[in-house]
Design goal:
Blueprint: E1 5-9, H1 16-29, E2 33-37, H2 58-70
Parallel strand pairs: 1-2
Length: 71
């Protein structure tokens, strides 16, 4: 079997750490690309509606926070 990519969904839980080690080992074993994905749900109230007093930079702040945690 040829594996060219390994997808690792990350939620920053305790289980993410051993899963990351396993995914890295698997990717190295098959010389595959390791793709790490962190996804969060955007709700309508979070989309930066000025009438609701939601900070328009909320999404960007969450993205930067996730990027830092992945590092």
């Amino acid at each position: 079997m040829k594996i060219s990519q390994v997808l690792l969904p990350v939620d920053f839980s305790e289980r993410s750490v051993p899963a990351a080690h396993y995914a890295k080992t698997l990717a190295c074993r098959f010389q595959a690309e390791l793709i790490i994905a962190h996804v969060f749900e955007l709700r309508d109230t979070y989309l930066g509606c000025p009438e609701m007093g939601v900070d328009p930079g909320w999404y960007e702040a969450r993205r930067e926070e996730a990027r830092n945690r992945l590092q």
